[in-house]
Amino acid sequence: MPDSGGSRSQRAHIPTSGTGPGADADLRTGPGTGGDLGTVPGADGDPTVPHGDAGALAVDPAAPQVTAPAGLPDAPVLPEAPGRPGASGLPGTPGLPGPAAKAARRTGLLVTLVLGGLTALPPLSMDMYLPALPAVTDSLSAPAATIQLTLTACLAGMALGQLVVGPMSDRWGRRKPLLLGMVVYVLATAICALAPTAELLIGFRLLQGLAGAAGIVIARAVVRDLYDGVEMARFFSTLMLISGVAPIIAPLIGGQVLRVTDWRGIFVVLTGVGIALTLVVWKWLHETLPPADRHTGGVTDALRTMRGLLADRVFTGYMIAGGLAFAVLFAYISASPFVVQEIYGASPQTFSLLFGLNSIGLIAVGQINGKLLVGRFSLDKVLGFGLAVIVLAAVALLLMTTGVFGEAGLVPVAAGLFVLMSAMGLAMPNTNAQALMRTKHAAGSASALLGTSSFLIGAVASPLVGIAGEDTAVPMALVQVVCAVAAVACFLLLCRPWQRAGREAGGL
C-alpha cells in the first residue's frame, strides 16, 4: 500500500506555541543520531522559535492549532479564527476547499474509528473473558488460582509487549509492526479457543497480550504523528470515548456469548474481531512515520532513546503522574465489586449499574475536556484541576470508609466513586498529550514507556486493596489517596507547570 502519510508538508504540522517541548526542552531524536536526545536551540523560553518540524509555520498562539489528517493532497491548513470553526467544520481542515474538506472528514472519522478499535481491543480481550472464568475452571479441571493466571498473563503481556513494539515502530514505521502484532494476536487468540490445558491457555494468553500491545502503543504513536498541541489532547479525549465503552459492554457481550456457546466461543468472537481489525488496518490505516524520521539503530539505540526519555524530568513527571492516576483507577476496578456488593450489600445488578454509570462519567468528562476545556485553558491547568478533584474525592472516600462521618451508606460512597472516576477524564488524556508533545521523534518509545508504566504501577497497587481482609473498604480508599497525592506531587515537583504557564497554547 502506498505511504499516504506523506511528507511533513502534507500533514502540515503546525506547532502549538508553548504547549509542548518548546516551552521547556524539546526532545528530538533525528535519524542518524543514534537515539541521543538533545535540546533544540532556543526552545527553553523563546516563544518565537516553534517546536516540531523544521520550517513549521509560526502562528498566533491565541488561535487553536490544527493538523491536517494524513493522506490529503497538499493544501493550505490555516488556523481557525478564535471562536469560529473552520470552513470544513472539522478540526484540522479549516480553509480547505469543499472536496478536500469532505475527504478530510472521511479520513478523520476513519482514522478515529480505527485507532479507537485498536485501543478498545485489549479491554475486550480482558473483560469479555471475565464471565467465563468459572466455566473455564470446570472445563479444564484446574484450580481457580491457576485460571486467574490467564488474566495475569494477558495483562503482563500487554505491559511488556509495549516495550518491544514501541521501539520497533520508531525503526520500521507504524504499519509493519502493527500488522505483525495483529496477525500474531489473531493466531494466539484462535489457539486459546482450542487450548486443551490450563498451562497452554496461560501461555497463549501471554502471547495474546504481547501481540495486543501493538494496538495500544502504536495507536498513541500515530496520534502523535498526526496531531500536535491541543488537537492531540482533543483526539485523546475522543479515543477515550471509544475505548471507554469497551469495558462497559465487554462483560455483557461475554455473557451473551455464553448463552449460546461455551467459553471457547468468546475466543472465537475475539478472533473474528481481530481479523476484522487487521483487514481494516491493512486497507485504510496508512503509514504516518516518514522514512526520514525513523531510527536506524538496534536494541542499543532503543535503550539509549528510552534512557534519554527517562532522563527528561518533565516527560518522566507526566509519565509517573499518569501511571499513578491509572493506579487509582486500577484500585477501583479491583476493589469495587467486593466493596459495593459485600460491604455495602448491593446486588450484582446494582453493582453493574453503578459500574456503568462511573464509566459513563469518565467518558462524558473526557468529552468535556476535549470539546470545551482544551484550547480555552492550558493543558496543565485542566490536568491540575483533574488531579485535585481526584485527591479530594479519594480523601472523602477515606473519611467515609473510616467512619469519620458515622456509618456511611452505599449512596455517599457511590457518589464519591463517581466523582473520582469522572475526574479521570481530565487526568489521563492530558498526561498522555503533555508527555508525547515532548517526544516528537521518539513517539513509539515514549508511548511504550507511558503504557508500560501505567500497567506496572497499576498492577502493584491493585493487590494492596485487599491487604486488610474482606470486612473493610479502607485499603481501597487509602491506596487511592496515596496514589492521587503522589500524582499531584510528581506533577508539581517534576513537571513544574508554572514555569511554562505563560507560554501554553490557550493559557489564560
Tell me what the structure shows.
- There is one protein chain.
- Helices cover 66% and strands 1% of the residues.
- The protein contains 15 helices and two strands.
- It has helices at residues 8-11, 98-127, 133-140, 144-172, 175-194, 198-226, 229-260, 264-284, 299-311, 313-343, 348-373, 379-401, 410-436, 443-461, 474-495; strands spanning 27-28, 38-39.
- Strands 1-2 form a two-stranded antiparallel ribbon.
- Helix 2 runs antiparallel to helix 6, helix 7 runs antiparallel to helix 11 (348-373) and helix 11 packs parallel to helix 13.
- The relative contact order is 0.14.
Relevant terms:
single chain; mainly alpha; 15 helices; globular
Q: Write down the secondary-structure element order.
A: HEEHHHHHHHHHHHHHH
Helix content: 55-70%
User: What's the shape?
Assistant: globular
Mean pLDDT: 75
**Alpha-beta content class:** mainly alpha
Short characterization:
The chain has 508 residues and is mainly α. Helix content is 66%, strand content 1%. The chain is built from 15 helices and 2 strands.
Give the topology.
Layout: H1 8-11, E1 27-28, E2 38-39, H2 98-127, H3 133-140, H4 144-172, H5 175-194, H6 198-226, H7 229-260, H8 264-284, H9 299-311, H10 313-343, H11 348-373, H12 379-401, H13 410-436, H14 443-461, H15 474-495
